């Protein structure tokens, strides 16, 4: 438990430095290290955050050491896509009962579950997640995992992020810590290359990364590890031999990127594959970092050629959408890296931003939003449903882009809505994704049902007469 406390402190330190910029350093640390109040984990506990961050590693069995309820439904809780294994989507839990806990059987049950998974599914590795109950009764999952690793000659990785230690965001960071401590650097790759990179915080939602990878392939840049989206265990384990890295979701794995830079001298930058200029800039920065680390300088020139070709193609394809979308007013209620990258992408196709939220965004993300929008009053923190409803009407939005939780606010305001968060069904990354985004917004705004929906209901018409 003491090592868990130290790990949490370290991760909290990261949160403090990123999130609470307006306070002094002491106040920041004091606030971030404050214990959780009951109910704070509503909307995602630390365990949930750790599992969300690691589950897309597809050939790993994810075993939840807990009573049944912590696991919930692991099938399609997010739209991360796999190009091969499906093991990651199967629910494994030790399903502890009161008898197991009272009789002290839980560690034995965990060991047995690991053996059953190894025999029945032959996974590349097993990740074991601690939860509130098993942490509170003092189960030492580190020791059980170590014993299982030695006995079964299979990597069994403890992920210490029980729900009560903090928020989902903290869980994301503890997941990175688990990879750093137990996985990354444990396998040496066969042929390390001068153009190998890591992409961190890319979840491959709806197969988004598959729209970007072909661009990197054309440049001869090899993605050694995309963590976690569509990753394989061995790719993650050998990620320390990459020459450069890009973090896509900066809240999830930026601490991991920093620590990999310190430990293995892998330089990184925070970027985005949303929008045309965002994608082009990301490709240029990847090439730049690789050349600085020893790759052939012709990579820079080849990148410029590719960017010019792709941009020309995508602008041509977007021509059809521009007159239909230009000047349309959009309210964005998302967060993190999307708070600025999607804003930028929408402005590129001529849409007008009437507001964007910056919840879960880092200080750097917030700075970028401000630079892009140049108007402070368009940026808001999270809002109550009532406030969001009023904002949509006040600012005369034509569409809201957000996650599923707020879709009914837009529909109540009789406005189109498009899912931009993790449950989305369309891939919006890369040049290809930009065309898809324009298409989906066009379909939503110009759906012929809206004029009918906005007509007064028959009984209202009767009242008017
Ligand atoms: S880990 Fe704790 S907070 Fe999270 S789901 Fe389980 S019991 Fe609830």
UniProtKB/TrEMBL annotation:
Gene behind this protein: nifE
Phylogenetic placement of the source organism: Bacteria, Pseudomonadati, Pseudomonadota, Alphaproteobacteria, Hyphomicrobiales
MF annotations from Gene Ontology: nitrogenase activity
Protein name per the record: Nitrogenase iron-molybdenum cofactor biosynthesis protein NifE
Ranges of compositional bias, category Basic and acidic residues: 7-21
Function, as annotated: This protein may play a role in the biosynthesis of the prosthetic group of nitrogenase (FeMo cofactor).
Family: Belongs to the NifD/NifK/NifE/NifN family.
Pathways per UniProt: Cofactor biosynthesis; Fe-Mo cofactor biosynthesis
A Pfam family annotated for this UniProt entry: Oxidored_nitro
GO process annotations (BP): protein-containing complex assembly
Occurrences of domain Nitrogenase/oxidoreductase component (ranges): 45-443
Gene3D superfamilies: Nitrogenase MoFe cofactor biosynthesis protein NifE, C-terminal, Nitrogenase molybdenum iron protein domain
Residue segments, region Disordered: 1-28
Keyword list, A-Z: Nitrogen fixation
